[in-house]
Structure formats: C-alpha cells, structure tokens
Specification:
Blueprint lengths: L3 H8 L3 H11 L5 E2 L5 E2 L2 H15 L4 H9 L13 H4 L5 H17 L3 H13 L3 H21 L5 H21 L8 E4 L8 H12 L4 E5 L4 H11 L3 E5 L6 H12 L5 E5 L14 E2 L4 H11 L6
Parallel strand pairs: 3-4, 3-5, 5-6, 6-7
Antiparallel strand pairs: 1-2
Helix pairs in contact: 2-7, 3-4, 6-7, 6-8, 7-9, 8-9, 8-10, 9-10, 10-13, 11-12
Length: about 300
C-alpha cells in the first residue's frame, strides 16, 4: 500500500490531481488509515497511470474516467486516441476554450458548485504542468475580462479567483516543504494579483526546488529581511502590471544590498522595457518554461 505522495511518484500524477479525480470521478477508492490518510494499492496505481496516459493522449478526464469504469479501456496505461479525436471532434484549443467558458459562466452565475466542478474538470484534464498555462491562468484572465465587460460583479470575481488560489495553494503545499529554501518568490508592495506568482512557485517546487512563497504586497524591508535571513540562491519578483513596476524596482534595489546571487523578474510587465540594462534575469512568460529556466540556472551556482 502506498501513501498519496508515493502514489503520485509511482503514477506520475500529482497529489492534487489524484484527489480531484477521486472526488470528481471516483476512479480510485483508496483505503484509509485510522488517522484518515489515503492508501493506494497496485491496482489503483495502474488506474491512475491509465488516466494519465489517456488524458495525455487527448481525452477529457470525464470521458477517460467513464471509459475506464465501463471497461472500455484496458487498465494498462497504453495511450489511445480518444473517441472525439478519431473523427471530427473539437480541437484541443476548442476544448480548452469550452472549459474556460464553462468556468466563467459559472462565476457569472455565482454558482460555487459549478465553479468548483469546472475547476475540477480543468485540473482533471492533465498534469499541473499541462494545464496551468493553457487553462488555469487563462481562466483567471478571462475572469478579469468578464469583470471589465460588466458581466461579472467584483464579489463573484473575487470568489472565483479565490477558488483558483486555493487549488494552486494545495498544489504548492503538496510539493513538499523544503528544509532550506533556495528560491524566494513574491510580489512587490502594492501588488495584489498573485495567481501567476503562486503558479510559478508551485511549478518550481514541483521540479524539486526549495521555494519560500511570500505572497502579495510585500514591503521592501520585508523582502530584504527574509533574503538576509535565509540566504537563498535566487529571489523572484513578480511584475504583473505597469502599476507594479515602481514597487518592483524598489524591491530590486533593496535586494542588491543582500548580495543574493540571482535577482529574477517575471510577469507580463517585466519585459525588456522594465529596468533596461539592469543585471536581472528575465523569466519567460509561460509559468512552466519560467520554472525550467530558473532551475537550469541554479546548479551553476554550486560549481
């Protein structure tokens, strides 16, 4: 029998996604210890591997779960083209658009049940790395667009965004708590749109990098204090909008005095026109690519 962490390692499916598939589709039914912790057997691991393989091949999570439970697919994690792709089914881009539209529609209706169900479907459609840039963060942007268009009131936008934040936080926590963080991630003072920074911190932690996530609206003094205290190899400052640039510039100036080896910036407002010529690392836009880029740089510091 395996714990959920061991099941995640053996199946290649992250613990948050295992919970989502279990809760939403009932594809696995783990045993429980007296303390309530999940335990998975070898058969359950094979089911998870099959789900992962089918989803990677283009199936939706709901269709993959239905096919497995109906015995239409052998539980041997062999990828098979999904029925909707064998003929004239919707493209992957269309399916992603439909999932995002479903999520926004649920938010506009102030329906927490449908909002959570839509998030389950998104997370169930692939691993964290395959959905975060194509579904989760675009869904957050779509919420803002709906609010700007007057279709979504601010309370509903906050509620739906909080649902996304909870899922990201759970994925971040499932990545394990490092004994000694090597990277600090956060936002500058006044910046509050943290979903991208939290998603990046999660992707980095899932790559085995020790991350301390500071969150939104962190003062310059706090940035400097924590970096001096834990002495990380890198500090990553999120620059989400033009309004965040002054605060981010102040944080970067403060961090220079700490001698942290790498000061990196990421976000839609962190392009070449932000502090041009500064000795900072500019991370690429996609969260997964940004995490990979920073991870590749860190080993050089140990040489």
């Amino acid at each position: 029998m395996y714990t959920i962490k061991q099941a995640a390692a053996r199946s290649g499916v992250g613990a948050p996604l295992i919970r989502a598939w279990e809760r939403r589709y009932g594809v696995v039914t783990p045993a429980r210890t007296r303390s309530g912790y999940r335990l998975y057997d070898d058969a359950g691991i094979e089911v998870l591997r099959t789900m992962r393989s089918l989803v990677d091949a283009g199936w939706t999570a709901s269709e993959a779960a239905r096919a497995i439970q109906a015995g239409e697919v052998a539980v041997d994690h062999t990828a098979v083209a999904p029925p909707e792709l064998r003929e004239t089914g919707p493209s992957a881009a269309q399916r992603r658009a439909q999932l995002i539209e479903r999520f926004v529609d649920a938010a506009e209706s102030s329906s927490p049940v449908e909002t959570e169900a839509a998030l389950d479907e998104m997370l169930g459609s692939g691993s964290f790395e395959t959905v975060v840039d194509d579904l989760i963060l675009p869904a957050a942007v779509a919420l803002g667009d709906s609010w700007a268009a007057g279709r979504l009131h601010v309370a509903a936008e906050h509620a739906a965004s909080a649902s996304i934040a909870r899922r990201l936080a759970a994925a971040f926590q499932a990545g394990g708590v490092p004994a000694r963080p090597s990277v600090v991630v956060g936002l500058p003072p006044g910046a509050r749109h943290e979903l991208g920074a939290l998603a990046f911190a999660t992707a980095l932690r899932r790559r085995g990098v020790g991350v301390l996530y500071l969150g939104a609206d962190v003062t310059v003094d706090s940035w400097v204090a924590v970096v001096r205290q834990i002495r990380p190899k890198a500090a990553v400052v999120g620059v989400v909008s033009a309004a965040d640039r002054d605060g981010a510039a102040a944080v970067i100036e403060g961090l220079r005095a700490t001698a942290v080896p790498i000061i990196a910036v990421g976000g839609s407002a962190a392009g070449p026109d932000f502090l041009p010529g500064a000795a900072i690392m500019r991370l690429p836009q996609p969260v997964v690519e940004a995490a990979a880029a920073l991870e590749r740089t860190l080993p050089r510091l140990r040489r």
